[in-house]
Write a structure and sequence with these properties.
Layout: H1 3-10, E1 14-16, E2 34-37, H2 44-47, H3 93-101, H4 122-125, H5 133-136, E3 172-173, E4 179-180, E5 186-193, E6 199-203, E7 206-209, H6 210-215, E8 223-229, E9 236-242, E10 247-255, E11 260-267, E12 273-277, E13 286-292, E14 297-307, E15 313-320, E16 337-338
Parallel strand pairs: 7-8
Antiparallel strand pairs: 1-5, 2-13, 2-16, 3-4, 4-5, 5-6, 8-15, 9-14, 10-13, 10-15, 11-12, 11-14
């Protein structure tokens, strides 16, 4: 099936721009507005009790882990420069098309976004999590949540079917990093079969440069932005985003050079900080996962704390939503903190 025909078949599932604005202020209980981050997860007593030193410099949440410079999201990782298009080898053509067009493909209920995928029923009661404390920490508000199914490496992140490697191969991408259908209409969402009788709405993952995202601020909480704090700047960048529904939103800051030390904060609409990942030093990747009310307008603040190199101070900021269907979490503890007040 040719690309145009597949997009035509997919159009009934696509929801275009102009997301409905919240008709009333969020009625979320203020006590439920919590967050975790690389800073709050740093608990020495818990760390020494784990099978390995997960929070160390060489651990999975350190600069040489999956979220670091050499990981799949980093500049020196296998994906490389996100600003370039994805060039699939010629030998992949028919094979890749057959997977996309399959009734059990990535946009079906049997794919990663469906009931049989990592975001399905197994997320809540799967055998992986039963009696497995370290695995439980990968779920929402866990100490390793940034590495889990709701994080930037999961099915809802830029490496999944909702990003450039998936839907980005089926839709056109304009100069601002937005997806458009064959009629030029803006596409922000995708409704995917979750099971035989149910569907779920997911936000597409756009890749932006710093300049394009500042000119056209995000209207949701699903994007990757490639930015840089240049010499002579005040040392910080801000990006506005919006939580379309009550959900867990994960932010991960991936330095493009391992010798840069950044801080990551989330601000409310007035610019007041509500969550922070500001660990001093370069031994951990900064990340935040917070529960956001429906319609909440927030800002991500990236701040350069220090650097041991004289090249550019560039980074990738990944913002990943979870949807309201995945709000529930068994995780609690001293690492789960209330929003700043």
């Amino acid at each position: 099936m040719r690309r145009g025909l597949f997009v035509s078949a997919l159009l009934p599932l696509l929801m275009t721009a102009g997301l409905a604005a919240a008709t009333a202020a969020a009625r979320t209980d203020p006590g439920s507005l919590t967050y975790v981050s690389a800073t709050t997860a740093t608990d020495a007593s818990w760390e020494t009790a784990t099978p390995w030193n997960a929070l160390s410099y060489a651990g999975p949440l350190g600069p040489f882990g999956p979220l670091g410079t050499l990981g799949p999201l980093g500049g020196f990782g296998p994906r490389g420069d996100w600003r370039r298009g994805v060039a699939l080898p010629a030998s992949c053509g028919h094979w890749c098309d057959s997977i996309r067009n399959s009734q059990e493909g990535p946009f079906s209920s049997h794919g990663p976004l469906g009931v049989d995928g990592p975001l399905g029923d197994s997320y809540f009661d799967g055998a992986l999590f039963a009696g497995n404390a370290p695995a439980t920490e990968l779920r929402g508000l866990g100490r390793w949540a940034a590495l889990g199914p709701l994080g930037p490496l999961g099915a809802l992140g830029p490496l999944g079917p909702l990003g450039p490697l998936g839907i980005g191969e089926l839709l056109e991408t304009d100069a601002h990093g937005n997806y458009r259908d064959r009629n030029g209409r803006l596409v922000r969402e995708l409704r995917v079969p979750y099971s035989a009788r149910r569907t779920r709405r997911y936000e597409l993952v756009e890749v932006h440069t710093e300049s394009t995202l500042r000119a056209n601020p995000a209207t949701d909480a699903s994007f990757l932005v490639i930015g840089e704090i240049s010499q002579g700047e005040r040392g910080e960048d801000r990006y506005a985003f919006r939580s379309v529904e009550e959900q867990l939103v994960t932010l991960a800051l991936v330095p493009e050079k391992s010798l840069d030390d950044f801080d990551l904060l989330v601000l409310d609409e007035r610019g007041n900080p509500i969550a922070a990942s500001d660990h001093a030093g370069m031994e951990r990747i900064e990340w935040i996962q917070l529960r956001a009310p429906a319609g909440a307008r927030l800002q991500a603040l990236v701040r350069l704390r220090g650097s041991a190199q004289f090249l550019s101070h560039s980074y990738r900021l990944v913002v990943t939503p979870s949807t309201a269907a995945l709000n529930a979490t068994p995780n609690s503890g001293t690492h789960v903190r209330p929003w700043y007040r």
